[in-house]
Amino acid sequence: MTEDIAGSVVEGEQRSWDERLPEPLAREMEREMRRWRVATFNYGVTYYLSRILLILASAVVAADQNLEDGHGSWLIKWVPALALIVAVMTAVDTWLKPQQKWRGFMESRDALADLMIQADGGMPADQVRAKFLKLRQQHRERNIF
Asked: What single DSSP character describes residue 73?
């Protein structure tokens, strides 16, 4: 799940696909790639952390009666707060749908990477622009609220 979220172009270094495309289009494609990489990473972290916290908090809430006489008796006073946290996190998870967003951003990121490879292979700039606009529109329809 770790991912390099830094820009993919080293300072001062140019890729050949950059040279074949108009500068504003190449800059915009790089900007979207950075944004989609960061969002992919963020939604992945959000998804896994929220799942882990939901599992742990739910387990404590479910086991509250069994914790009274054991080593976990100190957790009993936290059960009402944990129950509220579980309810709120479940609602937020349902609303944000981090797993679906994570997948969607990964798919868009990978499709843009493929488009950059096609541009490097000599695809004309007008075709690259048309595919980029279509990809961006599909991304917004699928992944943005």
From this structure: G
CB atoms closer than 10 angstroms to residue 135: 18
In this prediction the pTM is 0.69
On whether the CB atoms of residues 91 and 33 are closer than 8 A, the answer is: no
- State the DSSP code for 142: H
Instruction: Give the pLDDT mean for 90-110.
Output: 89
Kindly tell me if the per-residue pLDDT of 98 is higher than 90.
no
Whether 29 contacts 115, CB under 8 Å: yes
Cβ pair 40, 109 in contact under 8 A = yes
DSSP string, 88-124: HHHHHHHHH-HHHHHHHHHHHHHHHHHHHHHHHTT--
Query: Which parts of the chain are beta strand (E)?
Result: none
DSSP state of 65: G
User: What are 33-80's pLDDT values in tens digits?
Assistant: 999 999 999 989 989 999 999 999 999 888 887 777 777 778 788 889
Contact status, residue 32 vs residue 136, Cβ threshold 8 Å: yes
Stronger pLDDT, 87 or 99, i.e. the higher one: 87
CB 60 within 8 Å of CB 75: yes
